[in-house]
Amino acid sequence: MLLDDGLRAKVSDFGIAKRSGNPSSAGPGAQKLSDTHTTGVGTTRYMAPERLRSDEYSFPCDVYSFGMLLWELTHDTVVFQDYNGVRLTRHLPARVQRGVRPPLALPPDLTAIGPLITACWAADPADRPTMPACADELLKIESSNTSGSLPATYSTSSNSTSSNSTSSNTANVAVGAMPPPPGGPS
After folding, report:
1. pTM for the whole thing?
2. Which residue ranges form the domains of the chain, and what is each CATH number?
3. Please, what's the largest Cα pairwise distance for the chain?
């Protein structure tokens, strides 16, 4: 997770990043998007069932991973944390392919995000929302919250004030990012 100057989170993984978009704009010899898929790389805890089966995959695979990330942010723990070593690499993939997902135990102020999480990790990639639809849903959840925003550690707002700077720093730690530089946004 990276944070921009407005403290908006950006999901990234530069270790396995591939070019996406119109290959003709990349010049001669550019690969088609279908030629840029990775094989045998990724983080098992976040891999969609189709990736674990080495099936064809596309952007819905990233939506599945985003659902796992949302689960972690709302549960304040690593997804499938009890799986390590051989259990992680050999047993978890088979369970995920059979439909096992981590249990949802959301605090009352985050129950509205539950349906989005479960939609993101649907077994069939065609049943998952698009990333723009996920963003729209998160904005709807935030605007419908009675306090006007998500809890401070999950806020998408860049309008931080000194009264919630501790919460903003907590959000930075929660996503594994560095705090803003001195004099930068707080």
Report:
1. 0.64
2. 42-148 (1.10.510.10)
3. 54
Helix (H, G, I), strand (E, B) or coil at 2: strand
Q: Which amino acid is at 51?
A: R
Return the higher-pLDDT residue of 44 and 156.
44
AA letter at 118: T
Residue 8 and residue 86: Cα distance in Å, rounded?
36
Q: Which residues contact 147 (CB under 8 A, 6 or more apart)?
A: none
Q: What would the pLDDT profile of 112-167 be if each residue is shown by its tens digit? A: 999 999 999 999 999 999 999 999 999 999 888 755 445 544 434 333 333 333 33
Q: For residue 85, which of 130, 132, 44 has the smallest C-alpha distance?
A: 44
Q: Characterise 40 by phi-psi region: left (phi > 0), alpha (psi -120 to 50), beta (else).
A: left
Instruction: For residue 9, give the 3-state DSSP assignment.
Output: strand
In order, the DSSP letters of 14-73 are TTS----S-GGGG-TTPPPGGG---SS-S-GGG--HHHHTT----THHHHHHHHHHHHHH
Kindly tell me if the per-residue pLDDT of 41 is higher than 60: no
Neighbours of 48 (CB within 10 A): 26
5 touches 186 (CB < 8 A): no
Name beta bridge partners: 3: 9
